[in-house]
Amino acid sequence: MSDKTQDATQGAVPLTIVIVGHVDHGKSTLVGRLIHDTGSMPDGKLAAIKAMSEKRGMPFEWAFLLDAFQAERDQGITIDTTQIRFRTQTRPYLIIDAPGHKEFLKNMITGAAAASAALLVIDAVDGVQEQSRRHGYLLHLLGIRQVTVVVNKMDLAGYGAERFAEVEGDIRRYLGSIGVTPAFVVPVSAREGDNIASRSAAMPWYTGPTVTEALDRCTMPPSVDELPLRLPVQDVYKFDQRRIIAGRIESGRLRVGDTLLFSPSNKTARVASIEAWGAAAPVTQVSAGQSVGITLDEQIFVERGQIVSHVESAPFETNVFRARLFWLGHAPLTRGRQYKMKLATGEFPVEVQQVESVIDVADLSAGDTAAVERNDVAEIVLRCRSMLAVDEFIANPRTGRFVLVEGYDIVGGGIISMDGYPDQRGQRTVVSTNIHAVESRVSMEDHWLKNHHKSGVIWLTGLSGAGKTTLALALEHELHRRGYQVYVLDGDNIRHGLSADLGFSPDDRAENIRRVGEVSKLFAQAGVIVVTAFISPYRADRDHVREIAGELFHEVYVKADVATCESRDPKGLYKKARAGEIKDFTGISAPYEAPEAADLVIDTSDQSIDQSVAMLLDYVGTRFTMDTKQAAKG
Amino acid sequence: MDHLDALESQSIYIFREAFNRFDRLAMLWSLGKDSNVMIWLAKKAFFGHMPFPSLFCDTGKKFPEMYDFRDRYAAEWGLNLILRDCPPIEEIDPTLPPAARSAARKTEALKRAIAEFDFQAVIAGIRRDEEPTRAKERVFSPRGTDANWNFKDQPPEFWDQYKTDFAPGTHVRIHPILHWTELDIWRYIRREGIPVVPLYYTRNGKRYRSLGDMDITHPVASEAATIDEIIAELEQTSVPERSGRAMDSETEDAFERLRTAGYM
User: Fold this and answer.
1) Residue B209 domain boundaries
2) Which residues of A are catalytic?
3) For A130-236, where are the alpha helices, taking DSSP H only?
4) What pLDDT, in 10s, does the model give residues A585-629?
5) CB atoms near residue A181 (< 10 Å)
6) How far apart are CA B91 and CA B79, in angstroms?
7) What are the b/e assignments for A559-589, b being 16+ CB within 10 Å?
8) Rounded to whole angstroms, how far apart are CA atoms A20 and B131?
9) Residue A332 shares a structural domain with residue A361
10) 3-state secondary structure of A485
11) Which of A304, A324, A411, A556 lies at a CB distance of 3.0 to 4.6 Å from A600, suitable for a disulfide?
12) How far is CA A58 from its chain centroid?
């Protein structure tokens, strides 16, 4: 390598490349070759490798450059990931060699997660194998978009174009099915040095780039300065008189004077200063990647785990989300299990609410969802007891990914999707502050005494077609006949008036339910028994209504499975949903979260309407009757 | 951000994680260039403060220039310095080759200090590019009850989510500059003006690239008399940094055995 080349690449940021693929397909050998053929081998190393190989009665073994452990050399297998550097004329590289054995998948992920690009190595003779597919799938999941396939051991395949075309076709089909298009597919022999750093004379039929040329065509990871600001709070220091909030800016920019929003506490404050030890001049602006310290103009409560953003571009706030997960735990992940989740600097207790699918990465078929076993990939729903701030992985990888911890160990990692879940930002915030509640001289209890019954909200929740509206109207009719003050708030009627401005996105659904909750409470305070009939699929929304209405809230689960509801389909909606004409249809393309502790469960799939109404009347009879002491006061 | 800024920021992040997660924490200070860079990074992380003690395990065989450096900068940098003597060679595993056995005295002193202060975590300045077993290290690297490193079953470590939960009686080694190279270290020393022991500069055609005990550390041929010249030399050389450290290469697995038993 010329001196001029070195000058050009010295001090540049290296591109991080991970080498993945099935066990024994020649990953470590490829790296050994790359290091040697680019003139990056340290003095004495070749002799040392030769000695190690001879000692074991083997021909020269390139893999010994990286397989640092005796056990790795003795067994001829890479156990753990390692890193090594080399330079081409274009730039410096940091190579991560990842083990191909299924047993060491955790080490493969440890290596691959840090990379900006990948080489997927496939044995020309052995062809595409289980770990070739699994690694390909995981690269995609980890967000690595630049993938070059290296078909190795072409010497053992007679350097034949036909065999290469077969393997190339196989891997392109598989990667294509998960949405990955390899930049190049390069035929090589790592052992012989064909098409690594120089063109092979043995494969004149191949006209594409060599491995180093393919690497030089990769691009550096894009800057995340332009994304919205995310600064997860790492710590709060009080070394001197100053209270410094410390953390690393994961994306975006921050300036002195900016108003910052702390999620999920929803407190705001302005940046008074950016602190830096030994800085020549005061720092007024910092951006993505920098570990910083700031002081605020107000002493609001700040703690580790909160996420700082600008007010107008806050992260999602939620206590439930979907995730695509890779599982590394020895014990399987199952529904109902609890883990510690680490997201950015925060730690949160979470529970697995649902295992929606387990993906067999070999053929992408769906597996049994009863348990997610070690090395599986799965789609799950996680629920947290408290609200937390997250981003979707596709919008912001740094705050859209998490790990799960069980006991002392990291047992899995996942990326977040909010598909079908409401964004709960700001819902709990009272926007109008210049309002004072009016204290009426006629209390709710006065209404109760006059009506001779208590009031409240009977909240019917369940799938479309479960029978909510039918039951609500029947109950209203029966109660009215018996002299009760009763009124039905039905979904369709509300949507024609009060919520005419809302659609059916998770956000709009949440807002619709909030409005219904507030209106129901007003009716109940006026002494009326309100019966509502809304699908209200999200537990968080119903919990929100429970917060609004307090003890007046009665949750009734009108239960019927999707098949039953679909067979009824009174409004023909299931048919439309199946045909894809309705988006986000609960039970078909959006989730329904059944109540965990409903006050009453009515299973309409195996009893008549009359039987169901009787259950409701019985419930009202016990729960809405004035006790004698209260009645006597009147 | 340039390359050095990115390296610095990542190290600061690791220091802050270490300090947040562990109450009983110490940093190993070997007086070498890497551990001086670590002190500098810690001061940046904590806005001029060093909020945990620095531990120096004295083999009694360091170069005089190193002891002078220690006394001057422990005071100048305001370090809370813990000094512990290494046990005599007779107390060390006699099956180790001689230089490794000598180096293992430091492991023993470290283990005793960990027991004495009940440290949960020890910060060490190793780097991946120094040596192949270090290349396989984790940033937060768990050690067993006897300080041993179970390299065959290291925890997963990705997305800057480190293993911070540990069984009682075990501890963790934290490696804030694992991702730096020797050249990165010198370029940072030049940029920041960080002091180093003068043994790194040439004297009679030789200089030390890596500092250890006098009897098992050898200088390399070099005319580099300034930091700029050191950097220029390193940009061209293919001689490994630790070629002057005898314990690394006495036998094929000497250093692996040292490290498995708890050496840095």
Assistant:
1) 199-248
2) 536
3) 130-141, 161-177, 211-216
4) 888 888 888 998 899 999 998 888 899 999 999 999 889 988 654
5) 9
6) 30
7) bbebebbbebeeeebbeebeeeebebbbbbe
8) 22
9) yes
10) coil
11) A556
12) 47
- Give me the residues of A, 99-118, that contact B with CB < 8 A: 106-107, 109-110, 113-114
**Same domain for B175 and B233?**
no
Asked if the Cβ–Cβ distance from B20 to A235 is below 8 Å, we say: yes
User: How far is the C-alpha of A79 from the C-alpha of A28, rounded, in Å?
Assistant: 11
Chain length of chain A = 634
Interval A393-418 mean pLDDT: 95
Please tell me whether residues B239 and B255 are part of one structural domain: no
Instruction: Classify residue B98 by burial, with Cβ atoms within 10 Å: 0-12, 13-18, 19+.
Output: middle
Q: Do B47 and A82 touch (CB under 8 A)?
A: no
Interface test with B, best of A91, A403, A415 (most B CBs within 10 A): A403
The total number of structural domains that make up chain B: 2
User: Helix H segments across A465-572?
Assistant: 468-481, 491-496, 506-525, 539-549, 562-568
Per-residue pLDDT reduced to its tens digit, A543-552? 888 888 888 9
Does residue A425 form part of some domain?
A: no
Q: Which of A290, A313, A336 is the last residue of a domain?
A: A313
Q: What is the CATH number of the domain that holds A241?
A: 2.40.30.10
Whether residue A304 is found in the same domain as residue A409: no
Tokens of residue A246, six digits: 């410390």
Q: Alpha-carbon distance A35 to A130, whole Å?
A: 28
Six token digits for residue B183? 């050249």
B145 and B94 share one domain: yes
Instruction: Give the relative orientation of helices A506-525 and A539-549 as an angle to the nearest 10 degrees.
Output: 20
Pair A236, A151 in one domain: no
A342 touches B: beta carbon within 8 Å: yes
Cα angle, residue A150 at apex, residues A144 and A156 outer, rounded to 5°: 155
Cβ distance A110 to B156 less than 8 Å, yes or no, reads yes
Q: Which residue has the tokens 């009080």?
A: A238
Nearest to A323 by CA among A306, A341, A337: A341
Strand partners for B58: B85
Q: What is the largest CA-CA distance in chain B?
A: 52
The question of ipTM being above 0.90 is answered as yes
